[in-house]
Amino acid sequence: MALARRELAAWWAMLDVSDPRAVVAALEAFLVELVAAYGDLAMTVAADWYDQQREQAQAPGAFRATLPEALPDEQVRAVARWAVGPLFGATDSAKALGLASGAVQRLVQQGGRNTLYRNVRRDPSEPRWARVPQGADTCAWCRMLASRGAVYLSRESAGGDDNHWHNECDCQPVPVWRGQREPYDVDALLQQYNAARSKAGGDPKAITAQMREDLGVN
Questions:
Q1: How far apart (Å, rounded) are the C-alpha atoms in residues 10 and 6?
Q2: How does pLDDT run along the chain (218 residues), one tens digit per residue?
Q3: Which of 10, 108, 145, 190 is the most exposed place for a label (fewest CB within 10 A)?
Q4: Which secondary-structure segment (H or E) carries 131?
Q5: How far apart (Å, rounded) are the C-alpha atoms in residues 75 and 28?
Q6: Which residues contact 90 (CB under 8 A, 6 or more apart)?
Q7: Strands 172-176 and 128-132
Q8: What is the distance in angstroms between the CA of the first residue and the CA of the last residue of the chain?
């Protein structure tokens, strides 16, 4: 992901941003190729990692991870059109690059995430998955979702909330097999969630707002 973002930044530095419409067309084409290349890599790495985790868990039965379909080109083009918005009017090139860079991170990671979703759903050993934070600055919304632990069998069973991955999100869906514990401190996150819920009530948006205030996170 870092390599993809650096490649985008180097390409952007050579770009003439004076014509936003031309930038839209150029960025659409560039992002389609960039996301395809690094997304394929992310999917392959995720499939290999899934097989390693399955072997370590001594999951029953024979199963090998397979790759999902690549993201649709139109989804990537739509992101390019959205990212270029700051060039119209105020011509804020830095902001446009920031939006595009964050989107590239999310789209490339989505390839790996989709690989894990696919194989959790297909694996006859029926692992569940948890949303696992990877950094110290995990946002309140992701902390709330991660506090649920490994409770999902598929992306579909998670409903809408746990399928949302924002730009700069470093969380990963991680498979957890029967008899395993989640690879992070679920109890600590649940304590943060319950403390905020006791003040804010049951509305998830109010709870995450309270967690932002209590924890000093986004």
A1: 6
A2: 689 999 999 999 999 988 999 999 999 999 999 999 999 999 999 999 999 999 999 999 999 999 999 999 999 999 999 999 999 877 889 999 999 999 999 999 999 989 998 999 999 999 998 888 887 778 888 888 889 888 876 555 544 444 567 777 778 888 999 989 988 899 999 999 999 999 988 888 899 999 999 988 88
A3: 10
A4: strand 128-132
A5: 10
A6: none
A7: antiparallel
A8: 22
142, 169 contact by CB (below 8 A)? yes
Alpha-carbon torsion 209, 211, 217, 218, what sign? negative
Do the beta carbons of residue 71 and residue 40 sit within 8 Å? no
Which of 184, 90, 170, 198 shows the shortest CA–CA distance to 129? 184
- Are the C-beta atoms of residues 51 and 175 closer than 8 Å to each other? no
User: CA–CA separation, 19 vs 198, rounded Å?
Assistant: 52
Number of H helices, E strands in the chain: 7, 2
What is the C-alpha to C-alpha distance for residues 34 and 108, in angstroms, rounded to an integer? Answer: 9
Single-letter code of the amino acid located at 83? A
